[in-house]
Amino acid sequence: MTGSSPGGVGSFSVLSFCCWNYRRRAASISCSLGWAPPAWVRTASLSLETVRLEQFFFGSLFATIAVLAVIILWPFLTFIVLAGILTYTLFPLYTFFYSRIRRAQLASALSIVVALLVMVLPAIFLISELAQQVSGAYASLKLENIERITDYLGRVTGYRIDLQQMLNSGVEQIRKWILAVAPNVLGSIGELLLGLFVMFSVMYYGFVEGETFVTRIRQLLPLEPSLKDSLFYELRTITQAVLYGQVMTAVVQGSLGALGLLVFGVPNWLFWGAIMIIIGFLPLVGTALVWGPAAVALILDGATARGIGLLIYGAAIVMNVDNVLRPRLMSGRTKVHPAFILIGVLGGLKVFGFVGLLVGPLILALLVAFIKFYEEAYLDPKVAGPAAH
Fold this sequence. Notes:
The chain is an all-alpha fold. It has 14 helices and no strands.
């Protein structure tokens, strides 16, 4: 009865009740008069009750299995979501290999290997470089600079703020945290390796059977073909816009910000550039949380010209990337309000961890796409054009 109209469900219920009532009355009469009701009445009533029993049984069984499946998949949810994002993003690479070798399994394996080389090798270099610069970041906080900033804050606020004590306290807390989590490091590494295995397995089969899986979902949807086309168009467009828009904007902003720090003589520019790429997912404020304080620190350190130059560079170039590039990549039918992106990033980080930088905004953007589709397809069909009819 899937896909039946409300009127059809109502007619079914009324018919079932009538047959049940007729059978009850017929049974009562048969007991008193000694004859049985016609066979077709008994058969129709039993058939309707059998259908309803089958539907209840199937629905209960399906719900139970679905809950158990969620429980099984939940520990690997982050890796599965990340695998889906990477598969979707790198699918053109798989298509490139498949068009030349015509072997889906080999093309999928090559795509994963290339993705590993592209992601892992730069990551190893970046981590080694960051390790050196992080150690230098603390050393660059010279005592005289801290005292100068402390005196300046005291003159402005009227209160004595002991930055050196706060810094030492923060370092001590980090040391205690490292000692506390050290016993769990081996277990965490094992969980990480298992999660990565799940992620790459999902990616492998996602490349090979992804199109078949999407086609199967299309067939199961209880919608007209034109509505299916409209829905999948909305989802595909919004997904591409959010993924490419978020990633490209963050990378470009972080790279330009790191270049500005290098040009204007800010130490540990690569470390802060990596930080800017991460917080570049936040619209509006983003990288300004790094180059803004860096410019102020230069001014307080006596390098007024360099500090003002960094402020102008950040406001005129780095921030304009967010104002120009992000709207272009997420324009037209896929426009999502910056507040949704901001809330999605923060909420995604809280729920999914690091992967939430992408997953959070994507989920909220998909919600906007579904609302838009429902409005066009069911509330105002004229807006959707021929696809809604």
